[in-house]
Amino acid sequence: METLLNAIKNRIDNVLNESNDPNLKKSLYQLARNRIPEGHEDSSSIDPFPVPLLIIGSKYDIFQSEEFEKRKILCKCLRYVAHSKSASLQFVSSKSEAHVIKIRVSISSMVFGTPCSKTAVLDHNKPLYISCGADSFESIGSLTSLNVENKSGPKSLMEVKKIFTSYFPQVEEKNVIPDDPANDPNFREPDIDNMRVQKKKELFEYKKQKMA
């Protein structure tokens, strides 16, 4: 995820730097900052992603059979990453029609500004559903202790990475980011991929109408 997020952010920054509009980058990052709810307790600690970001945890039907401790650590790590980037986080299973509908609503909301549910699901025993700004570092709590009373959380993404890899050892390999990461065969999810294609077409038609 770290490699992918960095690649996307670098691509966005490159496009912004090539733009003829000198204020575009500043405006985009200001919009990103504005996505953080006013008065949020963590606003000074959040480094918002330059564009709306939705982190999807797919194959929830398989994930829920993992042992409790690993599930909770993974959920907390993803919550920390999402919250620190002012991203939304959603778990989904393509085998659940309700999940697929919910993810469609979320994507539509990000692309077209349509309404979506603001009710957060933070229970690690359920599929997480957390909109941008609906979480907090205090709520996430400690990643090294499963004691809910321990509110001492990690201080950086690097610390989160160390904790994550201690539970889920990573195999070092050369990562090759394709021109379009969405086409990476390692992350195929038919329902979500088909929905992405559909939303891409809708966005194209929307832009076409705007320009008419």
UniProtKB/TrEMBL annotation:
GO biological-process terms attached to the record? intraciliary retrograde transport; intraciliary transport involved in cilium assembly
Molecular function terms from GO: dynein heavy chain binding
The highest taxon in the source lineage is Eukaryota
An annotated GO cellular component of this protein is: ciliary basal body
Keyword set for this entry? Cell projection, Cilium, Cilium biogenesis/degradation, Cytoplasm, Cytoskeleton, Developmental protein, Dynein, Microtubule, Motor protein
**Where does this polypeptide localize?**
Cell projection, Cilium; Cytoplasm, Cytoskeleton
Protein name, per record:
Cytoplasmic dynein 2 light intermediate chain 1
Which organism is the protein's source? Answer: Stegodyphus mimosarum
